[in-house]
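G., the chain you wanted modeled:
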Amino acid sequence: MTKTYALLLRGINVGGHRKVPMAELRSVLEGLGHRDVKTYLQSGNAAFTAAEDVADAGDEAVRRGVEAAIEAHFGFAVDCLVREHAYLAAVVADCPFPAEELQGKQLHAFYLSERVDEQRFAALDREAFLPEAFALGDRVLYLYAPGGLGTSKLGEALSRPALFKGVTVTARNWNTARKLVEMTEPTD
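Predicted structure as tokens:
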């Protein structure tokens, strides 16, 4: 059985460091036997239909294989998240903020490698950041930042490494979150 995945790379093509050209990323994924490879923007978003033998081994096997191939090709490790269409669609559908009323830059999905609980954020004074706010979902943190992520004080507070110790986190604005759903839409 085939599965279509989104691949989210963390921390690439920022400030000229850890360059991963999307054409090369597509070649790396195709070299693993994945099909229908597409990329979106330069910030590390791809979609592909997994090679059947790899998909049968499970999502974590897909992630590990991609990470190993990226490191072998580019010479540095890149943390990746691999998510299926149903998960990505649920992230968009379950958003606790009025996404349809907001600009894409005002809402962000922080995709997480595992579930986290509210206790991680107990030291954050949420009232001090209003009107900015966040909410947790299934391996996702939703951030509402009316002025965008670039000026968000809450976004800055959430980017402290200690908050997500042991968890891979990569953020996408809402336009990209919706595009990932579209890119992984099953075609069968």
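The first helix runs from residue 22 to 31.

Shout if anything looks off.
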